Each structure stands twice: as structure tokens, then as C-alpha cells.
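To illustrate this point, what follows is a protein record of this kind.

___
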Amino acid sequence: MNMVICVVISLVIWGTDFKDKKVELRQLESYKVAIYNTEQGIVLKGNPKEEGFSSAWFYIPENIKILPDDTLFIRIKVLKNTVRLRYFLLSEDKRVYLLGMKYIPESANWQEIEIPLINAKPFYSSNFPWSLLPDKKPSMYVFVENQNPGEFHVKISSVKVKGKTEDKK
């Protein structure tokens, strides 16, 4: 009798705790948001008057191969407002970005959020997010935004992308 044992191992493909300063969060155009580092990670704060929204983003470089079967993990504390986390994953053929979204509710506690990238759908646009870094094709963009107009306060301690490998015996 033959027996097959399958072991699935999760590998960290990319990650940051924002303390190494390798990842730069940026404000999206005129969407006002203060961005600063603390011992616990990165803090985003905003209280926009006119537009009503705050938006910050970062990207994962093009040399990091991220697949739709991978998973995005974020450790986040949403102190004010609901977070709309949008990600744009570059398709395997590099012709279109795939858009995925996750809403994260307000909580005084740290939340461990797991987002399967397989749920992303094609996002057809001639300029967004392409125009953010016109000379590059990042593997992924991640946007952290307030869902509802008004005050916005978020702490992020880490972000990781994990993939799986199978080892059949």
C-alpha cells in the first residue's frame, strides 16, 4: 500500500515592520494624511476638511514575485473610522492590475488581518495605478484609506505576503 503525505509550508515572500525604513508610505495626491513612525510601527492620521478622505500607499517592488494564490497579512489597529484597504496586484502577464479590497472595522485592539489575493479582479485603467510610478511596474500597490469621511487614525505594525509550497512524499 502506497501512502502519499503532503506537507504545505507557508513562506514569507515579502514583509516589513516599517522600522527598517525600506518601505515608504506616501500620501495619495491631495488626500491629506500625516504619516509617522513609532515604536509600534507606522501611524496614519488625518482629518480632511474638503474631500473628506485620507489615503496613504506603498508598493512592493517588481523583483518580488507575488502570485494570486498568495496571501496578504497585515497587523493593524484602527482607532478612528473604518479602513478600506485596497491592493492592486500586477497580473502574471504584467498587462493589468488586479484589484482587491478589504474593510477593517474600528477597534482599540490589534487585529491580524488575512487577505487571500485570489479574490482580486481585473482593474482596467490607462493611468491608475500606473501613473504613481511611471518608470516601474511594482508587483503590488497597497492603499490604506478611510472608508467614511472624517477623522482617520490607524496604526500598522507589520505587513507580509506569504505563499505556499507543497512537499509530496
The radius of gyration is 17 Å.
